[in-house]
Amino acid sequence: FQGIVITPLLLLLFLGSSSSVPFTSIFSQLFMTVVVPLIIGQIVRRYIKDWLERKKPPFGAISSCVLLMIIYTTFCDTFANPNIDLDKFSLIIIVFIIFSIQMSFMFLTFLFSTRNNSTFTPADTVAIVFCSTHKSLTLGIPMLKIVFAGYEHLSLISVPLLIYHPAQILLGSLLVPTIKSWMVSRQKALKLTRQPKAPVKV
């Protein structure tokens, strides 16, 4: 929702031209696209929770398949557009920038959650590093299509998001062993410091 306000400001800053965004229409469309399905899902879940726990439908596999289809169709829509006009050098630069941004966000959240006066546990830190830097295509693409509806270069401006999503999956896979070993060692160290000292016999 912040992007609805920030995006026109960035366009004005970098392009030097004014832009108008129909806020009422955008908020209503985002509400119907994102918020309403979430509310309906939470309501329905209360009534079929017991059935779901008994049957255990493969929601994980279904979610992965749906996400894969969204990524596939978005890639097709983006690169099938003849007006995309994206050269290889620009694509390499975008990939480098996206990876740099992702690494910077993860590093900053790690520093923030592990500072001296922080009350976060090592497990909290892992959740913060991975979850707070996550950006999903399932929300990002609908937002782009709503905010930039009718824009002829919609395919071009969706490229960074298309790269960001695989980048976070790749970086997450590479960092899991390191983060896991850090969390385990940190938890052991905290347990040792919290153990009461044995009384010294004289």
Which outline best applies? Answer: globular
Portion of residues within helices:
over 70%
Strand content: under 5%
User: Please, what is the average pLDDT?
Assistant: 79
Distance between the termini: 67 Å
* Helix/strand/pairing category: mainly alpha
Give me the Rg, rounded.
Answer: 22 Å
Low-confidence blocks of residues = none
Total helical segments: 8
Task: Profile the largest sheet.
Answer: none
Number of strands: 0
The ordered H/E elements are HHHHHHHH
Family: Belongs to the bile acid:sodium symporter (BASS) (TC 2.A.28) family.
Signal peptide: 1-20
Transmembrane segments: 30-48, 60-80, 92-113, 125-148, 154-176
Organism: Catharus fuscescens (Veery)
Task: Note down, in words, how this protein is organized.
This protein is an all-alpha fold and 202 residues long. The protein has a domain at 86-187. It is 77% helix and 0% strand. The chain has 8 helices and no strands. Helix 5 (122-131) packs antiparallel against helix 8 (159-194). The longest helix has 36 residues, at 159-194. The chain starts with a helix and ends in an 8-residue tail after the last helix. The mean pLDDT is 79. Pfam families: SBF_like (PF13593). Keywords: Membrane, Signal, Transmembrane, Transmembrane helix.
Summary?
With 202 residues, the protein is mainly α.
